[in-house]
Design a protein that fits this description.
Helix content is about 15%, strand content about 40%. By secondary structure, it is of the alpha+beta class. The chain has a single domain, classed as Hotdog Thioesterase (Thiol Ester Dehydrase, Chain A), CATH 3.10.129.10. It starts with a helix and ends with a strand.
Length: about 150
């Protein structure tokens, strides 16, 4: 394995395709979510629009949108430079607005922390379809946690 596969914080210099690297999160990886950008105060993830992420109307399933909004907001407040201990959090609350739907190829989710405390941070996130249609937005509260082991 190369360094990029072992450390999710290492983002390739050129990420022109929406498939940069694994999230190191089994659920998100299973869903097909990929990091495009992860740096201080910003995270961006991409997911290809395929039949397995749609509802019976053929539109993106609301649960998939919530997963993207939650994940990208949470990761946005948990960046640590390579060589530093990983930072983890859990979601305390997530308020979501479903805004539109449409046909397209890529869902592009971005998140930014708004305010940080010692144990809690607040973040906002959005999911766009092909950078043209704003599908959903969210604001969340996240608690930093210590990992066991």
């Amino acid at each position: 394995m190369n360094d990029t596969m072992q450390d999710p914080r290492i983002i390739p210099a050129a990420t022109a395709t929406p498939a940069a690297l694994s999230t190191q999160n089994p659920y998100l990886d299973w869903l097909g979510v990929k990091f495009a950008v992860w740096r201080e105060d910003y995270a961006e993830m991409h997911l290809r629009l395929q039949p397995n992420v749609t509802n019976r109307s053929g539109r993106v399933h609301g649960g998939v949108l919530c997963s993207l909004l939650d994940a990208v907001a949470g990761y946005s407040g948990c960046y640590a430079p390579a060589g530093e201990p990983l930072i983890h959090s859990v979601t305390l609350s997530l308020t979501t607005q479903f805004l539109d739907s449409g046909d397209g190829t890529w869902m592009i989710a971005s998140g930014r922390p708004e305010k940080r405390g010692r144990t809690v941070f607040f973040a906002r996130s959005e999911v766009w379809l092909d950078g043209e249609i704003l599908l959903a937005s969210a604001s969340g509260t996240f608690k930093y946690i210590r990992m066991r082991g």
